[in-house]
Design brief:
31% helix, Rossmann fold, binds magnesium ion, binds adenosine-5'-triphosphate, alpha/beta, 23% strand, 17 helices, six-stranded mixed beta sheet
Length: 518
Amino acid sequence: MTADGGEIIRLQGVCKGLYDLNGKTLNRGVPVLSDINFSLEKGEIHVLLGENGAGKSSLVKVVCGAIEPDRGRVFIEGGEIPANDPQQALASGVAIVSQEFSLCPNLSVAENISLGREEVRAGGFLDRKATRAAAAAQLARLEASYIDPDRKVRHLPVAEQQLVEIAKALAAGPRVLILDEPTSALTDNQVEMLFRVLRLLKAQGVSMIYITHKLKEIFEVGDRVTVLRDGRTIRTIPVGEIADVDAVIQMMIGSKLENLFHKESCPVGDVALEVDNLVGQPGDPPLSLEVRRGEIVGLAGIVGAGRTELARMIFGVDGYVSGRVRVFGKELPKGDPNAAIAAGVGFIPEDRKRQGLVPLMSVAENMCHVSMRRLSEHGFIGVHKRRALAAEYVGRLKVAAASLGQEIRYLSGGNQQKVILGKWLSANARLFIFDEPTRGIDVGTKSAIYRLMVDLAKRGAAILMISSELQEIVGMSDRVYVMRGRRVAAALAGGEIAGDNILRYAMGGDELPMRNAN
Ligand SMILES: Nc1ncnc2c1ncn2[C@@H]1O[C@H](COP(=O)(O)OP(=O)(O)OP(=O)(O)O)[C@@H](O)[C@H]1O
Ligand SMILES: [Mg+2]
């Protein structure tokens, strides 16, 4: 299991209270980490599990020196590291792929990958050629040579941004690699490729801490698992001793999860969304599909198939060359999100690491950002109504926040996502477009979100759900469109909605998995 045994990292009795953006402990609120004991052995992949807000990211921030514990000790290779000394952690060879977006959007891929490393500098200046070559080598390692090293990061789709973040961490040649939800934005074939790289690193003696909400991954790469709950370590156990995913869920949430999807078929009503021969770019094939009230329609396909682009055109974030979008029988003007919102469309975007939240505003204010506009059409919306609405969705989505007034920047990654979801769910839309609705969300809350979706459909809303999780598409959809190469490759219903069938259309029959063409 481990290369040569022996610990590389140990946390002893680590405690941390709620902290600010500089990592300084605030003298209020519940503890984020309480009496944490944790060890990482040489050459092992140690998986950290827990619900949103359990303390996973905070724990690894202590390991890499980004936040200073209030109490307890941190050892790297037997030597105690002085509190809050990230330089020392880095010098000890610790690299992190963090959960937050950490790239510079206006720099190129190559510049981002080389950032902060001196060997690619000549005489104090960035050696462009060496920088490019170093980046290209890292991308090749991840089988991602299709990403152009000269491209500005902000122009890349989310999955490619994620690969660049991973390439950047690998480029540092770490002995300890921390990966905080590295696969939440990747598709299956990209994940497999990443796992091959991780296994290779492990064989070379690199130790890894791996955080994920995709529980099946534990059995593919994990050696040991530590479960956190409310900032405490509940249990550390070798993966070989875990029976199955259900046993993992039980450890995480403390009880069994009886029904994940809550799926019920609802009476189908009028056409809510009609996409009629939409052509995004000259030369693209025309796209057509429809969603009726009461339906949950899945939009499947691999990254690069054109699903997010389609959603953005419908909502008016992007324009298109020709074709029509009708919502409840009325044609929407091109490229006008306000018109879409007024027509009752709610769009939960994929790129939630960077969109949709105002960090300095409170949970309640963030949640009511959209609905305020709608509610105020009927006059004044009072503080009380706003709070009541926010409270309802904080409860339904189990947002772990100290209070409704807490600033959103103090929430864990998954809880911030829940607030974005709540913001749109509470907006009274009648047609919802969800782009990867449960990405980065823990399994218990996932189930709550599925229940909310079914409730919406029951009340006559129409839902178009983009998802890269086959299980989610199969478990939730009344009908499925599969996209491939920017066109609709198949429309499936009833018994046709099965994982292998969807995959076959998404991949294109006998063809090998397609590379992201963007
Ligand atoms: N930047 C921050 N500043 C202050 N407090 C934070 C910050 N990030 C998280 N917290 C608090 O620490 C607690 C644990 O959050 P943490 O991010 O460690 O959870 P997590 O297990 O990584 O959750 P998720 O699965 O949602 O990413 C939360 O209650 C949160 O409010
Ligand atoms: Mg986290």
